[in-house]
Specification:
Layout: H1 2-14, H2 24-33, H3 44-55, E1 62-64, E2 71-73, E3 78-79, H4 104-114, H5 124-129
Antiparallel strand pairs: 1-2, 2-3
Length: 145
């Protein structure tokens, strides 16, 4: 019981007080400016789709799974166990830096992740919702990029 209370209190400290949801086209523009359009052969549509299914375009989202095995941070819900300072830190970044709405550090880390052996398959939500999706073009509809 005490452990669950402590974890609940800690989650309030980790989650920023002001959640800022970005629009689909704004996310697309930031990701394109960050060099993710066709990065490692993945279209910008794939990245926007991933951002939707991971965080609903919320760059300040923090997810703590039910078992406490990992936490996901930011737009792409990058896991702390491998990628940021609460784990192996393969992106050489503080997990809190992944919560910045400017997305620069998030994009840098995403590039490292996608260069791994699994590519975008490192995100199960991409495999389930975006890979081979016939509807990928809709993610950029009306964005004027």
């Amino acid at each position: 019981m005490k452990a669950s209370v402590v974890l609940s209190l800690l989650s309030y400290l980790v989650v920023p007080s002001t959640s800022r949801i970005l629009g689909r086209c704004r996310v697309a523009k930031k990701l394109q400016e960050g060099g993710l359009g066709d990065f490692e052969g993945y279209s910008l549509e794939n990245w926007v789709c991933l951002a939707y299914f991971e965080s609903k375009f919320n760059p300040t989202a923090v997810y703590d799974n039910l078992h406490g095995d990992y936490m996901g941070y930011g737009l792409f819900q990058i896991r702390n166990t491998d990628w940021c300072d609460n784990g192996k830190n393969l992106c050489h970044i503080a997990c809190s830096a992944l919560l910045n709405p400017d997305l620069k550090k998030t994009i840098e880390c995403a590039k490292i992740i996608v260069q791994g052996k699994d590519g975008m398959g490192a995100w199960p939500s991409w495999t389930l919702n975006c890979q081979n999706a016939y509807s990928l073009p809709r993610w950029l509809d009306g964005c004027n990029l």
